[in-house]
Amino acid sequence: MCQNHGVAYIKPGEVEIQEIEYPKLALGDRKCEHGVILKIVSTNICGSDQHMVRGRTTAPAGLVLGHEITGIVIEAGRDVEYIKVGDLVSVPFNIACGRCRNCKVGQTGICLNVNPARPGAAYGYVDMGGWVGGQAEYVMVPYADFNLLKFPNKDQGMAYIKDLTLLSDIFPTGFHGAVMAGVGPGSIVYVAGAGPVGLACAASCHLLGAAVVIVGDMIQERLDQAKSFGCEVIDLTKDTPLEQAIAAIIGVPEVDCFVDCVGFEARGHGSNSGTELPATVLNTAMAVTRAGGAIGIPGLYVTGDPGAKDKAAQEGSLSIRIGLGWAKSHSFYTGQCPVMKYHRALMNAILYDKIKIAKAVNVEVITLQDAPRGYKDFDKGAAKKFVIDPHNMIMN
Ligand SMILES: NC(=O)c1ccc[n+]([C@@H]2O[C@H](COP(=O)([O-])OP(=O)(O)OC[C@H]3O[C@@H](n4cnc5c(N)ncnc54)[C@H](O)[C@@H]3O)[C@@H](O)[C@H]2O)c1
Ligand SMILES: [Zn+2]
Ligand SMILES: [Zn+2]
């Protein structure tokens, strides 16, 4: 019997490497003939995991984390027709059946058949269907042919693995945020947040031809990272209102496109930069986006936040000045990124050297045993994207 180890959430501020069950090709009592088991090559720590580990969700103790998975197929069910044992594949974080009305139109982030509680599912995530996470050595992927992206060549795939590992979530997510904000050639964009998603979004904006990409955050190291690939930056620890800071860069106080890569744990500006203000990014988005502009919102907003200060926010109700957005005819686009919409094209952008996404988000590869340290450093605001290498296939 194979062994398996994974990263389990224990309590706020604590994760632990545990021996976990080796995955079964099963859905409840029946065999999952359309699924595969993967030996995991790389699996990343995400800002979304941090919401759980900071105790800001109802994640239960013992939850095996991890939704950003790349691996080699080692076992395939009878009905898997096109993916083969030995393939090196990227796993979209959205689990999607390929059969429901949403999947049929490419809305794989809100598949209707994979989570009894609500539309949409993911590996290793609270409220997302109870699927076992993949910050582990092995994982089961239930809808293999539909979900998996096979890399064309395994050796080349391993050579680009630090970039390709980002296809399971943050590269498509950042790109999706930019697309939904209407970014195209010549756009002037503001990206809120310089975490891995914000940095991936900023790099995506360049790929899409944006003229100016401005990134705002309060962590200097992350802003320096954004600067390293040609972004303008705004230090939000300063008291200058965002409109003024934007005008100092482009001459006018408004941008064409705004992407919220922060979410509900947002903090305020200047003297408020240490205070949580969950609606602040959404409200500044409406203030600094031109009339007719669009706002992409990959940053996560939750339906329940036990750690929120006020009662309304504990239920996910935030005070947003929707009248302003209405008056300016803004478009808003929220939700989980439907990774499969983008992952093949973005894989090609990587393999044909059109983007250095691992460099943009500053990938650091760590062992599975080192994952708790990765969580801690990431939480402290390291300008890094931690990629776990559970079988030492990348570092060796
Ligand atoms: N929609 C999706 O499919 C999807 C996928 C992945 C991640 N996410 C979400 O995207 C968000 C970002 O992920 P990440 O991994 O980069 O997380 P992160 O926590 O590392 O980054 C968030 C950054 O926002 C900064 N910040 C806080 N308040 C701010 C403000 N008012 N203005 C500007 N910056 C501010 C923080 O300092 C931090 O650097 C998270 O909410 C995550 O859950 C969504
Ligand atoms: Zn993620
Ligand atoms: Zn579906």
Helix content: 25-40%
Question: Could you tell me which ligands this complex binds, including any ions or cofactors?
Answer: nicotinamide-adenine-dinucleotide, zinc ion
Distance between the termini: 25 Å
Rg from alpha-carbon coordinates: 20 Å
Number of helices: 15
Biggest sheet record: 7 strands, mixed
Average predicted confidence as pLDDT: 97
| Uncertain parts | none
Q: What's the total number of strands?
A: 17
How would you classify the helix and strand content by structural class? Answer: alpha/beta
* Proportion of residues in β-strands: 15-25%
Outline: globular
Structure characteristics:
alpha/beta; seven-stranded mixed beta sheet; six-stranded parallel beta sheet; globular; binds nicotinamide-adenine-dinucleotide
Structure in words:
The protein has helices spanning 47-53, 101-104, 144-147, 154-159, 161-164, 170-180, 196-207, 220-227, 242-250, 280-288, 311-314, 322-327, 343-351, 357-361, 371-379, and strands at 4-11, 14-20, 26-27, 30-31, 36-44, 69-76, 88-91, 138-141, 149-150, 188-192, 212-217, 232-235, 255-260, 289-296, 331-333, 363-366, 385-388. It has 396 residues and is α/β, with parallel strands linked by helices. The strands form four sheets. Strands 5, 6, 7, 8, 9, 16 and 17 form a seven-stranded mixed sheet that branches. α8 (220-227) links the parallel β11 and β12. The relative contact order is 0.16. The mean pLDDT is 97. Residues 46, 48, 67-68, 93, 169 line the site of one zinc ion.
